[in-house]
Amino acid sequence: MTPHRASPREPTGADTVSDSNLTTGESVLEFDGLHKSFGDNHVLDGVGFSVAPGSMFGFCGSNGAGKTTTMRIAMGLVRADAGTVRWRGRPVDQEIRRRIGYMPEERGLYPKMRVGEQVTYFARLHGLDAGAAARASEEWTGRLGLGERRGDPVEKLSLGNQQRVQLAAALVSRPEVLILDEPFSGLDPVGVDSLAEGLADQARQGVPVVFSSHQLDLVERLCDSVGILARGRMVATGTVEELRRREAGRLLRVVVPEAAHGWAAALPGVRVVCEQAGDTLLELAAGTDDQSVLAAAVRTGRVTHFAWREPTLVELFREVVAAPTAEAAA
Amino acid sequence: MTAPRTPGSGELVRLVAGREISTRLRDKTFLISSAVILLLVLGAMVFQAVVASGASKVTIGVVGDRAAMQPALVAQGEAAGADVTVVGLADAAAARRALASGDIDGALIDGTGSSPRLLVERTPDRTLTAGVQGAVGQVALGRQLTQAGIDEFRVPQVDVTAIHPGNDPTGERTGVAVVGMIVLYTLLILISQFVAQGVVEEKSTRVVELLLSTMKPWQLLAGKVIGLGLLGLAQIVAIAVVGVVGALAFDVVSLPGQLIGTVLWVVAWFVLGYAFYASVFAAAASLVSRQEDLAGVITPMSMVLVVGFFVAIQAASNPTGLLAVVTSYVPGLSPLVMPVRMAGGGVAWWQVLLAVVLQLVAIALVVRLGGRIYAGALLRTSGKTKLREALRAERL
Questions:
Q1: What are the boundaries of each domain within chain A?
Q2: Residue A29: phi, psi to the nearest 5?
């Protein structure tokens, strides 16, 4: 697969295209050229992306790719060696951070503190006065289905409910931005759905939501735009559609039931991804004429299916992440 | 809905402190330990009062010439510091019954006769025996002298002259200071321990990440230390008030002014000691991520406290000794040793001032250094952080 990975590095490469696409729109939250090393370990190597108001940004990447570090830089928990995170053009500082709802990767709550009081406490730390904090705490615990549990210590709750308390703590101050590190991990399918709905609701109200996840199907379903991080760099950013279009013209599914096995193997610029009983998936190198592939297919027999295959996000992810040499070469 | 404002440092510190206080006020460990300390102080006072008064109440039954014996018995009792009550009894059988029922401590039979006898229930009390013997002797001697024609006789009164007149307060003051020091030590250990546990709790539960996205490490630390410190202060003040009121009510002390002065110094030294140990404990605790590892990092500092405690106990008996004098200036030890030394007397004001200033300087140092360690180590939530790493870590 690797030889073809030069494409995002070409003049209209992923970084340039996606950035310009996003910045031409209205973007409120910008991550710009973040660099971070821990000792000799270069965790972030120029991470940049922007998020439009009311949009959901899915942040994907393998373990250790630097997602958490990027988010922690935004929250002021790690200091970037270079680069800035801006909110409406202003570098994010303590004051702006107070308007960000944050969910850390490793959940953090006081286990012995009661649910209602805990959510109220975080509301107050974000600047709500006592009365408003109590009302907001009541509202959010209610909305997240924790109304009955307000008086219980957090440690008495199930993991799923603790997760909801964590979300309530992030939402209670009516944040203008949400930054959530793996918010879906550890949730059952019902929990995933209700959280997804909650986040979509926030986005509809104009709150940009940035979240990281390994559940790419979820990201594909929920997110307006996606960023894929690998080895400290954004290897792809844009809407799922854009990423698909970029990859489109590369995967071709051809079904010729009576074709001889290996009919496409010799075609120039074509690699057979898989072939099974006349159903072949072909990867075309840049510049390869799809019509010549069709002609070759017709020669082998009756063509029942000939179409570009829309790659799933999972495939896109594998594609861009499994390309270490292209990065190094570039 | 009111728009959120940006809370200032003062407000954040207050919020953190408020949470610490309200959490601890509902914490059983805290409530029980507070009650136990208070009860111990009260108990010590009641014990004192009982011991002081219990020994001095003696009831003696007299079979025979009660009128003749009573003044002599009371006078003897007074000399021995006992408050003697004399009751008349009909006969020996009545005396045995009264002894058996515990109404009397001893029964004197035929005190004015030739063969006086003293009946007691079990072991004869030496004070009782000596007093009764003295009284019998005194009455007999008087009678014999009268019989010999000497109506008036005078026993020369011993004149007591005090070289330093007035009630000698040193022993009493030292006693109060030692009790105060024990309370101070207990609270220092307890509250500093709370600070350390709180720091680790926030690290181990990762809640610190959420907290630090809204405030700076020093605000979190200040809130925690101040909140728990106020609790500790409230506790020691409550104990002091109960102690002073109790001591006055039970009449355990003779000089209330001295007592209050010593108690106030103990409270002041608590504030100084707490500021020092809380900062040190917080910094040490921030190096570990699990409660199980906590003991390892705070034991060295706890040992300093324990050493201070024993030196202070030693200083009570030898307040002018080299050890007491030197350690009363050493920051960390001075809060325990100096109050005891001061109670022992002979400490000039400048010496106290020097100890206070040295302790304040040490507090300023540990707050700065401890704050740096805390801020550097707080977000390293995996395993143990080395001191040097914490100091070198980037500050947020």
A1: 2-245, 249-309
A2: -115, 120
